[in-house]
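Hi all, long-time lurker, first post. I run a small reading group and we've been trying to get comfortable going from sequence to structure in the token notation. Rather than ask abstract questions, I figured I'd post a concrete chain and ask someone more experienced to write out its structure so we can walk through it together at our next meeting. Sequence below, copied exactly:
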Amino acid sequence: MVGILFALLAGLLMSVQGVFNTRVMDESSMWATNCWVQLTAFAVSISIWFFADRENLFSVFNVDNKIYLLGGVIGAFITFTVIKSISGLGPAYATMLILLAQLVVSFLIEVFGIFGTEKIGFEWTKLIGVALMIAGIIIFKK
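-- Answer (accepted) --
Happy to help. Here is the structure in token form:
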């Protein structure tokens, strides 16, 4: 139940953040906005770490596969692509397409066991779920 609540909260926060970032970009530039977003995220994260965690900050470098350290780089491009999609499509349509892409890629990561994820078997019902999601997007758009 807690996982469901956090997932719903994540979706809420991502939608609001996307709109906020797009509004900031309207008055600034794409990369100035992205810098601000990443800088404020760093400031909040380092503050929470300082007051609540205090584990070795550099233990992140202990990860076996160093490619996983590119999460922040990916985050910068996530901010860029979310802003561009919301400014071009509007919040609802952009979010639906973003969620569709997340679902498909996440499913493929699980089916093929990519990035150390536990491999699951392919199920046609999940493919039908993706098809229903695409149908929902088409209906929503019309």
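A couple of things your group might point at:
The chain has a mean pLDDT of 94.
The chain is about 75% helix and 0% strand.
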